[in-house]
Amino acid sequence: MSMMEDARRNATDTKECEVGPGAADGAAAMFRRLFPFAEKAVVVEDPHTKEVAGNGVVARLRGAGVEVAEYVVNPDGSDFHATYEKVEEVREAIRTSGAVAVAVGSGTLNDLTKRASEELGLRYMVVGTAASMDGYTAYGAAITKDGIKQTLPCKAPLGCIVDSTVAAAAPREMTASGYADLIAKIPAGADWMLADAIGSEAIHPLAWRLVQEPLRDAVSNPSGCASGDEREVRKLCEGLVMSGFAMQAMGSSRPASGTEHQVSHYWDMEDLAFDGRPVSHGFKVGIGTLFSTKTLEFLLRRDLSRLDVEKAVALWPATFDELKATFPDVYGSRPAHIRRAEGEMAKKYSSPDRLREELSTFKRVWPELSERIRNQIMPFGEVRENLCLAGAPCEPEMVGVSRKRFRDTCRGIPYMRTRYFGLDLVERLGLMDELLGELFGPGGIWEVGK
Q1: Which residues have CB under 8 Å from 24's CB, separation 6+?
Q2: 91, 252, 370, 402: which sits with the fewest CB atoms below 10 Å from its CB?
Q3: Considering the chain, what percentage of its residues have pLDDT values greater than 70?
Q4: What are phi and psi of 11, to 5 degrees?
Q5: Which residues of 112-134 are buried (b: 16+ CB within 10 A; e: fewer)?
Q6: Among the listed residues 240, 265, 258, 294, the one whose alpha carbon sits nearest the alpha carbon of residue 184
């Protein structure tokens, strides 16, 4: 059984998936198989995706006897984002058409159609046009609602097609964003190993395999991805699709998300923009991947098998209220950040007894665990070079983030989600100031003030 077949067999939502050159030509046949009783489809697209793939999908659907309506988001060609107002527009278009939706596009169009269909109690399919993110086959949609970007619950598509010929011709920055989102799964896997070791989130064997087995090959040729080589972009597409399937298999984003995604989510809360445009998810994650990799390398230089557990426990806040009292110093005048940290850490905080147990576990398993992590991660210099070769940002300034802001972000993210990461171990060891000083202090890779 191929990995794609194994992924489909274990998926909760997506029943068919095709990735390859010319795959969009099979959209009508897939639609007929998945929706045998549907008489009508509504193709959700924008002016660009209509031109590169939508017109072909419409023609093939009509050729197969399917009545087709088209809904073009922002027909004037202006930029748009995945806001809840756009979800409502797409939802109304689907509702009034009385049809099954076929999204033709990448992340934003897929998320809008995904959420709109969910609210109508309908399933949909997607024809992807770029290797820009891992959300094609993922449950949930990243939508800005009430001024906050959040993942709203909804099923993944019933069918997914990603035409690698179309994706290879997509704007270079879209492929670069997808590359950055995929290489992030390398340190994310190491974060998961740490969480698994203390019983926080056990490694799901299938989800791990779906992400990690194709990963190294998929990110092995960043220059080929940047140049639009169809074969390399196809591997990138397959790796991104597998990440979505892994999230379906586990019912969690854990297989595809680690410290680096927390950097991205933090900047989502701050509406990060550069040159007047929102920074893509993949680009934010790519910069986060650099920090995550450095954090893991920092941990690997320590022999935790010789850890003084009682000393570390003594440095840890003895109560949650004691920890909470530090949040104003960490977040300054950001009340939304403080509220989120209080809510997440109320569930994540480890009592001294619990911390003693966690650190004792790490002390016991560190010789074997550290070797697995060492084999898992890619060296920092190689990660940074690959991001550069792929055309993705490889310095925080390239996404409009100063080094001071980057340092403040890295200081704040341990408290922003209940999930356990490598940075949490740094914090619990009492080494956060040392890590930040090494990275952002005099002589550091991101020395503040240089």
Answers
A1: 53, 56, 57, 127, 161, 163, 166
A2: 402
A3: 100
A4: -75, 145
A5: bbbbbbbbeebbbbbbbbbbbbb
A6: 258
Residue 145 CB burial class (10 angstroms; 0-12, 13-18, ≥19):
middle
What percentage of the chain has pLDDT greater than the value 90? 88
Q: Residue 295: how many CB atoms within 10 A of its CB? A: 24
Question: CA-CA-CA-CA torsion for 248, 252, 254, 255, nearest 10 degrees?
Answer: -10
Tally of CA atoms within 13 A in the half-sphere of 196 that contains its CB: 18
Domain boundary assignment for the chain: 3-170, 179-201+252-440
The pLDDT of residue 166 is above 80: yes
By the 10 Å C-beta count (0-12 exposed, 13-18 middle, 19+ buried), 188 is classed as buried
The length of the chain, given as a count of residues? 450
Residues 254 and 183: their CA atoms lie apart, in Å, by 15
Sign for the CA dihedral angle at 226, 229, 231, 237 comes to positive
pLDDT (tens digit per residue) in 24-54: 999 999 999 999 999 999 999 999 999 999 9
Whether 1 has a pLDDT exceeding 60, the answer reads no
Two structure tokens written together for 136:
């094609």
* Of 193, 304, 202, 319, nearest in space to 259 by CA: 193
Domain 3-170 CATH assignment equals 3.65.10.10:
no
What is the value of pTM for the model shown?
0.95
Averaged pLDDT score across all residues of the chain: 95
Query: Stretch 425-439: mean pLDDT, rounded?
Result: 97
- Distance, in Å, from the CA atom of 168 to the CA atom of 174, rounded to the nearest integer, reads 10
Distance between CA atoms of residues 95 and 91, nearest Å: 6
Residues 380-408: b if buried by 16+ CB within 10 A, e if exposed? beebbebbbbbbbbbbbebbbbebebbbb
CA 190 – CA 200 distance, rounded (Å): 14
pLDDT of 269 = 87
What does the pLDDT look like over 301-339, one tens digit per residue?
Answer: 999 999 999 999 999 999 999 999 999 999 998 898 999
